[in-house]
Write a structure and sequence with these properties.
The chain is 37% helix and 18% strand. With 629 residues, the protein is of the alpha/beta class. It folds into 3 domains: 307 residues, Rossmann fold; 209 residues, no CATH class; 97 residues, no CATH class. A hairpin with a 5-residue loop joins strand 23 and strand 24.
């Protein structure tokens, strides 16, 4: 989801999850270098941001608001003799704030109190200039142009950076697809040196955090801005476990609203205190609306949820543990609910590498005289499957509407029409696209299956499991679900039983909030979603005819009504839950759904007067979402 970029003079370039808000670098004029007031420093434009977007992505170079930088530094730097490291300085905002903090605490002039690294030479120049400009060298430091992973920790003989008291900053955020080669190999080795085994699916921030702890002396503190992947990603579990073993207290601050509105990614603040101090492992989780709510971190942390060493929440997300989540655990323990993986398997759809070439509309196929019998029905988005069932009639409707819904997977290439189409693709350069050029022949699409059901990969209001009666394949914008553990005669009932508040709450707890407020379920996360067991489904004859009603309600976007029907038939009558327990599940679901959707449509949670005029006061967030659509 792309959104318009905004320019702001109050943001600095850093290595985190946020968009480049001012894409043009600017050198500091002599007049600007002679100014040293804090207000001027807070308004200074970025000097070191790479001007080419591909360079920004490669370096993981993004802005961090000063409203986040300042409280992080104040929390980490508590004495005038504190030594500070920023492993990815950007234009030096964290180190400049650290210098101001040290001076405010009464530090004396010393050879080095601040240390920094950055792989970007412009960033190093900017950081050094900022420190000289604002503090006249009174709190000087060493800022080096070097990939942080190439820097040896102080425990290694000859290391150039000594032990420090605090590590602050905003590590580079480079997804695993771009984080490759020697850089990734070195990063993973640095993490392994600390006893953390990360997979090759890890983004750059994960080994960065682990390596940064190697520079802290005992009792040291870590204050970082990190992507929300720390909470959700499977590979991040190694990092989470490592942090709790390494620090006396680990605190995490989440934001209800986007810190970087132009980015799909969300961020959190990691505050780890007391390296190698016992007892290790206390965890604090707290949520604030926006950076303004985190200006006094000590006060914020005092009202956080506290988990003692050895006590683990379902997710490092405030509010993930409540009476409703306890009820889910109980239903799972009693085998009323079971993970989807126990009866099926979710996987990604096919990756063609060029959907605009391989997925055609019926008129396009006829115009090129391609044999329709060699093209496979295929859905490419959740919009093409609005209900709980995809029928053959739906496929015909898609074809008649001119939507791209016919996949050519490479079969029949020897036929004249398809051979001509291959040449058309070569002329357009399709064969040079990444996924195409790494396979032989380039036009053969692998991984095409006809799943038993589809599961929405990115869901707006609720995730939907859709029975595939249309015998269609799907792209990787949907999850392809096999139900090998459910007999054919029970699959209609199983799909219907999916639509209940317990399963939807499970999805909210397991999935991750993504850009714009959507709920994202990776295949491994979808496999963990709790669904009614076969024992529950098999003893209720009402479940099969229920699907027709739920399908109609979903197509009308009456999500709340669909769940109310499912709650009554599946949870109350099928599982034997009391109305009170069902209400608890529904309320928890509505609260979480409302908080997630607030980032997409603020009026859902706090309707304006105009919205209230058309929405009943008792409408749930799900009902308001349906009406907004």
């Amino acid at each position: 989801m792309s959104v318009a970029r905004k320019r702001s003079p109050r943001r600095r370039k850093s290595r985190a999850d946020g968009p480049a808000l001012n894409p043009r670098p600017r050198t500091l004029s002599p007049a600007a270098r002679n100014s040293s007031t804090r207000s001027r420093r807070s308004k200074r434009l970025v000097t070191s941001l790479p001007s080419v977007p591909s360079d920004r992505k490669r370096l993981g170079a993004w802005y961090t608001p000063l409203s986040i930088v300042r409280p992080l530094v104040e929390w980490a730097v508590r004495r005038g003799d504190t030594t500070v490291l920023d492993p990815a300085t950007g234009d030096g905002c964290f180190l400049v704030e650290a210098a101001a903090r040290l001076r405010g605490l009464g530090t004396d002039s010393r050879p080095a109190a601040l240390y920094g690294y950055d792989v970007n030479p412009l960033a190093v120049v900017a950081t050094r200039a900022a420190l000289r400009q604002d503090h006249h060298g009174l709190v000087c430091g060493e800022v080096r142009q070097l990939d942080f992973f190439q820097a040896n920790p102080p425990s290694v003989a000859g290391a150039e950076t000594p032990w420090v008291d605090a590590v602050v900053g905003n590590p580079p955020y480079i997804r695993y697809q771009s984080f490759a080669g020697e850089a990734r190999t070195l990063a993973l080795r640095r993490a392994r040196d600390r006893g953390v085994l990360l997979t090759r699916l890890s983004s750059s921030w994960a080994p960065f955090v682990v390596h940064a702890t190697a520079f802290l002396r005992p009792g040291g503190r870590l204050a970082l801005v990190l992507p929300e992947e720390l909470i959700h990603a499977s590979y991040a579990k190694e990092v989470r476990d490592f942090l709790r073993k390494t620090f006396r207290t680990v605190s995490l601050i989440s934001f209800e609203n986007h810190v970087f509105p132009d980015s799909q990614e969300r961020v959190v603040l990691l505050l780890a205190d007391g390296k190698n101090q016992d007892p290790a492992g206390e965890l604090r989780l707290v949520s604030v609306p926006d950076p303004a709510g985190a200006c006094d971190l000590m006060t914020v942390l005092s009202r956080g949820e506290v988990y003692a060493p050895g006590e683990t929440p379902p997710k490092w997300d405030p509010g993930s543990k409540d009476s409703a989540s306890d009820l889910l655990d109980l239903l799972s323990a009693k085998h009323v609910l079971t993970p989807l993986a126990s009866v099926g398997k979710a996987g990604i759809g096919y990756v063609s590498g060029a959907n605009d070439f391989f997925v055609l509309s019926r008129p396009e196929a006829l115009r090129r005289r391609l044999t329709l019998g060699l093209l496979l029905p295929s859905v490419t988005s959740a919009r093409q499957i609005p209900g709980a069932v995809l029928t053959r009639g739906d496929i015909v409707t898609l074809q008649d509407s001119g939507s791209p819904c016919l996949l050519w997977d490479g079969r029949g290439a020897h036929r004249r029409a398809f051979a001509a189409y291959i040449q058309e693709g070569i002329a357009k350069g399709v064969h040079r696209r990444y996924k195409c050029r790494v396979r032989n022949p380039w036009y053969r699409v692998p991984g095409v299956i006809v799943p038993d059901a589809f599961l929405t990969y990115m869901s707006d209001v609720i995730p939907r499991l859709v029975l595939n009666r249309g015998r269609s394949s799907c792209t990787n914008t949907l999850l392809a679900v096999r139900l090998q553990g459910i007999p054919l005669r029970e699959r209609t009932a199983f799909i219907a039983a999916f639509y209940n508040s317990a399963t939807m709450l499970s999805a909210e707890l397991i999935g991750r909030r993504y850009g714009g407020g959507v709920l994202k379920l990776e295949p491994s996360e979808a496999d963990r979603v709790l669904v009614p067991t076969r024992q529950v489904i098999g003893r209720r004859s009402e479940f099969a005819p229920l699907l027709k009603e739920i399908d109609a309600l979903l197509r009308a976007r009456r999500f709340s009504d669909a769940l109310s029907l499912g709650d009554r038939v599946v949870l109350e009558e099928g599982c034997g839950l009391s109305k009170r327990n069902v209400a608890s599940l529904r309320e928890s679901l509505a609260r979480r759904c409302s908080a997630r959707l607030r980032t997409l449509r603020p009026a859902l949670a706090q309707p304006s007067c105009a919205a209230e005029a058309t929405t009943a006061p008792s409408a749930t967030p799900l009902e308001r979402a349906a009406q907004a659509e």
